[in-house]
Design brief:
This protein has 226 residues and is α+β, with helices and mostly antiparallel strands.
């Protein structure tokens, strides 16, 4: 993050995620400079309305995007996010979560897991979970710098090691872990909590998730590939 994004990080502390824009119950962006200095994002939404949002609607009264940078030194947990049905059933802070990864940088051998292999059904996924081989039923695809990968709710996914992404998502932080490489939490000495039943209840089967090619946009002042 220091080299690619010019962020000053604390020494000897592992930092893998930076929240850039957020409007959640316990975390909210605050204006750092300018006429709105000190105001929270929610206040701007209320006072500026469509001048800030354009045609985008609020999500449960909140700014509709949560934007992060993520730097995965090693593969992250295999997970899935709540779908519409789960969000309606549970309510509260359980909101539907769609996201997309724009790859800022990736090692030559870097990859992501994105969706189930063609034909994998609920019984096969359950068996893979029980046998500790979830990765065997997932699509493993190269993480290509400059490409964007959409991850609708219900998509089983994970970032592989050596990938730095901008993650753009809906304002929800509910994540259900299917598998975490049997890693042990240094703080507790135990394996991190999994949420197998919740995750399996959200999985979408038979998804079509083609790779999105880079799109080039140019203007008078700048040129952006996304």
């Amino acid at each position: 993050m220091e080299a690619l994004l010019d962020k000053k990080l604390p020494p000897e502390v592992a930092i893998g995620e930076s929240w850039e824009v957020v409007d959640l119950e316990d975390e909210e962006s605050v204006v750092a400079a300018g006429p709105g200095k000190g105001k929270k994002l929610g206040e701007l939404v209320q006072s500026w309305g469509d001048d800030l949002l354009g045609r985008a609607g609020l999500i449960q009264g909140r700014f509709p995007l949560l934007i992060k940078f993520r730097d995965a030194k090693e593969a992250l947990s295999i997970q899935v996010h709540p779908d519409e049905a789960t969000a309606r059933r549970l309510g509260g802070r359980v909101r539907v979560k769609h996201e997309a990864w724009y790859v800022i940088d990736a090692r030559p051998e870097a990859f992501i897991y994105r969706g189930l292999r063609e034909g994998v059904n609920a019984d096969e996924l359950r068996r893979a979970v029980d046998e500790d081989c979830v990765v065997s039923v997932l699509n493993r695809i190269p993480a290509r710098k400059g490409h964007c990968y959409t991850l609708p709710s219900g998509t089983v996914h994970a970032l592989g090691g050596g990938v730095t992404v901008a993650e753009v998502q809906t304002p929800s932080e509910v994540t259900y872990r299917l598998y975490d490489w049997n890693r042990v939490d240094a703080a507790t000495g135990r394996r991190r909590e999994l949420h197998i039943e919740e995750a399996l209840a959200c999985v979408s089967y038979g998804q079509s998730l083609p790779e999105e090619p880079p799109q080039h946009t140019a203007s008078v002042w700048t040129s952006v590939t996304s």
